[in-house]
Design a protein that fits this description.
- With 300 residues, this protein is an alpha/beta fold.
- It folds into two domains: 87 residues, Rossmann fold (3-Layer(aba) Sandwich); 135 residues, Rossmann fold, CATH 3.40.50.
- The chain is 39% helix and 16% strand.
- It has ten helices and eleven strands.
- Strands 1-11-8-7-5-6 form a six-stranded parallel beta sheet. The protein has a three-stranded parallel beta sheet with strand order 3-2-4.
- A hairpin with a 7-residue loop joins strand 9 and strand 10.
- The longest helix has 21 residues.
- It is globular, with a radius of gyration of 20 Å.
């Protein structure tokens, strides 16, 4: 870990780390296919044309190509498709022996019950880690598919040798996708576990008092630049999960991605910090690849 000084911090470069892991996966896949076996196969279901979803799924397809996976995208542009139709598509993927894992990209149209659809996914192919079976196994410390963003965070901490054992970790946010699962992982007994974890949220009364005690902060609440320099102590490790689009007329796209952390202020105190973009985001995609490779091995 970098020295905790006012001007020196270690950048936890998720893009660089994701590229390294993708190279490792590609080498393993090359060995698999050289032996005459098929490549791992990831599928995705996308309903509609939500800009963010299209971009995210596009990243996943490109990542599959980079590591030698086969990928299939079932893109239903008609948002009026029925819930029954979508459940039938999920059933087909569940039963297809050539598909190792698949994801259902959210959000879904309002007339479709997203929970019902996610529950219909075979837990053995649930590489997003959203099914209650996988959530339960994660909670119990059993082998499971951990949802991609929390898994990506643990890989960042592990690969950058951030010590979590005995540390006070504060998680800001309690979503089922990030906050809750990462709090469970950090509190568990894995390589990036054994931390004392405090979960804060919108109803937390003394948030600043708590964050000032934190050795590690996972910011996952979706409010741009919420965590400021006066809320953290010297030497803190910061993992910024936020990705909010903030209007910026000087940017080519008219907006910029901002994290939940005021990087300019907090980086002056941090010993290590993730950037936005280029931090947790790339690791979320690569974690999906790791889960798919794991599913492939279980099916083989």
């Amino acid at each position: 870990m970098a020295d905790a000084t006012a001007t020196s911090y270690q950048l936890l470069d998720g893009k660089k780390l994701a590229d390294e892991i993708k190279s490792e996966i590609a080498a393993e896949v090359s060995g698999i296919t050289a032996g005459g076996k098929r490549a791992p196969h990831l599928a995705a279901i996308l309903v509609g044309n939500d800009g963010g979803s299209l971009t995210y799924v596009g990243h996943k397809v490109k990542a599959c190509e980079q590591v030698g996976f086969k990928s299939t995208l079932l893109h239903f542009t008609d948002t009026s498709i029925t819930e029954e139709f979508l459940l039938n598509e999920v059933k087909k993927l569940n039963e297809d022996p050539e598909i190792d894992g698949f994801i259902v990209q959210l959000p879904l149209p309002k007339h479709i019950d997203a929970d019902k659809v996610l529950m219909a996914v075979d837990p053995a192919k649930d590489v997003d880690g959203f099914h209650p079976v996988n959530v339960g196994k994660t909670t119990l410390g059993l082998s499971s598919f951990v949802s991609a963003t929390p898994l990506g965070i643990t890989k960042i901490l592990e690969r950058y040798n951030i010590e979590t054992s005995g540390k006070h970790c504060v998680v800001i946010g309690r979503s089922n996708i990030v906050g809750r699962p990462i709090s469970i992982l950090l509190n568990g007994t894995g390589k990036t576990g054994n931390a004392t974890v405090t979960v804060c949220h919108s109803r937390t009364a003394n948030l600043k008092e708590i964050t000032l005690q934190a050795d590690i902060i996972i910011a996952a609440l979706g409010k741009p630049e919420f965590l400021t320099g006066d809320m953290v102590k010297e030497g803190v490790v910061i993992v910024d999960v936020g990705t909010s689009r903030v209007d910026d007329p000087t940017a080519k796209a008219g907006w910029r991605l901002k994290g939940d952390v005021n990087f300019a202020e907090v980086s002056k105190k941090a010993s290590a910090i993730t950037p936005v973009p280029g931090g947790v985001g790339p690791m979320t995609v690569v974690s999906l690849l790791l889960n798919t490779l794991k599913a492939y091995k279980q099916h083989a």
